[in-house]
Amino acid sequence: MTDNAVTRFETELSEVKQKPVPLVWSSPKANLGAALLDLQSSNKDNLKKSIKEFEEALEGIKKEEAPQDWGALQNKLADALHALGQQEITDTTAILNESMEVYKNALMICKRQENPLVWAGILNNIAMIFQRQGEHSNGVHTLMKSISAFNNALTLRTEDDTPLEWATTLNNVGVSLQLMAVIKQDNNMLEESLKASETAIQKINPEQNPLGWVTVMSNLSVTQRIIAEQTKNSDKAKESVANAERIVAFLADSKTEYLDLAKKEQEMSQELLESLAK
User: Fold this and answer.
1) Are 152 and 174 in contact, with CB atoms under 8 Å apart?
2) Which of 83, 92, 196, 206 could form a disulfide with 174 if both were Cys (CB 3.0 to 4.6 A apart)?
3) Residue 267 lies in a domain
4) Burial bucket for residue 39 (CB in 10 Å: 0-12, 13-18, 19+)
5) Structure confidence by residue, pLDDT tens digits, 42-52
């Protein structure tokens, strides 16, 4: 959605003066919340506004009377909280915990048999939160929970039916494996992580899904560098450097944090390669 959509829904909402019919009041609020969430330039302020609109929309919808609307709004609210939790620095844990609980609310309504792809998407997002929590706490058990949830999502996000979602979720498994492997110092698990990302990248077209491609390629480069460092394998270090260079070249005309991260990864991989050559 665009800024025009936000303006349109704000205008629509301004015309609803009171809450005589809850659903009449809730619908434009839900639309405005979704428009704010979907803005490509969504920042913390927009996400906080989005959360406010979803929460107020939920005041007019009772689970018993309109379960599908209630569940869909819970899912959107959880998405907004999840996005905010990834941007916040101080309240990350609390926001992600709240997001987790709201996703669970959504799963009370969204059933695997009735809406399998939405169910899988919610499960993938829950797994992402487990992954983030495990990363920050060095929690092997929490990372194992993330892998289990990702794998459950993959039973419905199949390679044939939803190749992009399949590849994204498979790479997410790779990230959790990588994080757990570093904690446990398990080289076999690192190789599993690498294989997951190598398989995932085959399904992602950089022109059609640039962010997805950069995300998977970044994980590839990082995992190769970690393997090279732990096994003193210069070939893996070269692969890491080459993939980091591909990302930098792909993002050369952009001015995003992803380019800065790619340059940092390229520098770290190059330094490792040079140290292994001595």
Assistant:
1) no
2) 196
3) no
4) middle
5) 578 888 888 88
Long-range contacts of 156-163 (CB under 8 A, 24+ apart): 156/112, 156/116, 156/117, 156/119, 156/120, 157/117, 157/120, 157/124, 159/203, 162/117, 163/203
One-letter amino acid at 272 equals L
In Å, the largest CA–CA distance within the chain is 76
231 belongs to a structural domain: no
Domain housing 3: 1-110
Distance from C-alpha of 193 to C-alpha of 191, rounded to nearest angstrom: 5
Rg of the chain, C-alpha, whole Å: 21
At 232-258, the pLDDT tens digits run 999 999 999 999 999 999 999 887 788
